[in-house]
Design goal:
The protein is α/β, with parallel strands linked by helices. Helices cover 34% and strands 15% of the residues. The protein has a single domain, classed as Rossmann fold (3-Layer(aba) Sandwich), CATH 3.40.50. The longest helix has 20 residues.
């Protein structure tokens, strides 16, 4: 396919649900048109998430890697099976893991920061390579807001990516400077969410 009209920047931000879902929808559309997509998830490390599992069906058009703290349950199962993969390229997914109450993978500590730093290294590599028609940096805005990724570094990446690579950036709290660089900027506004009445994350809906 012709890439002459590619290369724009999308930002999906706001407090409402749907930012990652919108990015995955863009991936689905892109793959349908024969495009090559690379997805990097910041702050997320659970290989049981639906978007990671689904992406296996689109190989070799889609590559997907996570840079976030992994699920403890998942790590225990991997150890029992003799598997040790710090980042998952679809090589390990267990369908019997349910997200529980430990919340370890959501604690934003120095370990999470280390994952984000590695994620940005990978983001620079893929966004500047020219090998991919679309690059998705999921939740990178959150990494910036927590100080795990420098805002200036993300700005430099946007300005120095391969000119024909479509770039999608997601996560709440997108800095104004990032929004100003975007060709598409969408804010997801929270009106109602079942979390407010105690409904826990549901497989296939939230993850």
């Amino acid at each position: 396919m012709s890439r002459k009209n590619l290369g724009l920047v999308h930002v999906y931000t706001g407090d409402g649900k749907g930012k990652t879902s919108a990015a995955m929808g863009a991936m689905l559309r892109a793959v349908g048109q024969g495009m090559r997509v690379f997805i990097i998830q910041f702050m997320k490390g659970g290989a049981y998430t639906g978007e990671l599992i689904s992406a296996k069906n689109f190989l070799p058009h889609v590559k997907f890697i996570q840079y976030g703290k992994p699920c403890i349950k998942e790590q225990k199962q991997m150890k029992l099976l003799g598997i040790n993969t710090p980042y998952q390229y679809f090589d390990y997914v267990r369908d019997d893991i349910e997200c529980g109450t430990c919340r370890w993978c959501f604690v934003n500590d120095m370990k999470q920061k280390e994952y984000c730093i590695e994620g940005m290294k990978k983001a620079w590599e893929v966004a500047s390579s020219g090998e991919y028609d679309m690059v998705i940096l999921d939740e990178v805005n959150v990494a910036v807001s927590l100080g795990f990724v420098k805002k200036e570094e993300l700005i430099r990446l946007i300005k120095n990516k391969y000119e024909r690579t479509e770039l999608i950036i997601t996560g709440r709290g997108a800095p104004k400077e990032i929004i100003r660089l975007a060709d598409y900027a969408t804010e997801f506004k929270l009106i109602r969410h079942p979390f407010d009445r105690g409904v826990k994350a549901r497989r296939g809906i939230e993850y």
